[in-house]
Amino acid sequence: MKIQAEFLFPQDLKEEAIICRLCKEFDIILKIVEASFSTQTGRAILRIEADPEELRRTLDYLKERRIEINKLEEIE
């Protein structure tokens, strides 16, 4: 399964290597389509490919970290 979504990172997480952790802790293929980070917030459009259960675990992890997920769509 492959998805694309916009991820909004809160200010207090901008110094953490969240995207790097995703690749290390989950069995996913991740592509950064677009990203922009400032002193206030971060925004990234990511494509994530994984089996459905691993994708669910990945998205749950991001939600637990208070990362907002918008415009989620399944792609081919």
Radius of gyration from CA coordinates: 12 Å
Query: Could you say which overall geometry the principal axes of the C-alpha atoms support?
Result: globular
- Indicate the structural class: alpha+beta
In the CATH classification, which architecture applies?
2-Layer Sandwich
Question: Alpha-carbon distance between the termini?
Answer: 8 Å
Q: How would a crystallographer describe the biggest sheet?
A: 4 strands, antiparallel
The CATH superfamily title: ACT domain
Q: What number of structural domains do the residues give?
A: 1
Number of helices: 2
What fraction, in percent, of the residue positions are helical?
25-40%
Low-confidence spans: pLDDT under 50, at least 5 residues?
none
In percent, how much strand structure appears in the residues? 35-45%
Order of neighbouring strands in the sheet with most strands: 2-3-1-4
Output the helix-strand order.
Answer: EHEEHE
Return the CATH class.
Alpha Beta
Give a count of the beta strands, DSSP E runs of length 2 or more: 4
Mean pLDDT: 94
Write down the CATH topology: Alpha-Beta Plaits
